[in-house]
Design brief:
The chain is mainly alpha-helical and about 110 residues long. About 60% of the residues lie in helices and about 0% in strands. It has a domain of about 70 residues.
Amino acid sequence: MSINMPSFLQGVNYLSPLRYAIRNLAPYSLHAIHFTCNDAQRLPNGSCPIENGEQVLDLYKLNTDALKNLLALGACTLIYRLFAYALLKAMRMHWGTVGWSGRMRKVLGGGR
């Protein structure tokens, strides 16, 4: 939730399911909220820097379509699950060909 994120991290952020979860929940939780401030926090014109949730959503660019973010969250989660399944399947096939005693020899560094 940074306003000025480096471009490399912005690209990585698109791979994160948290991005889509936050973008989906933020409009629901901030929509009708009003903020107050004390005299020391007021701007020279007398207003608070942020007065309502809509300003927070606009500041962090979270004022987006919730359904689109929910679908992206589902797709991202599905892609992660498929990737994890494929990785586990590949590891099982690799470890399955070596056998239990061969794996233990590799781990313990023994030869025979």
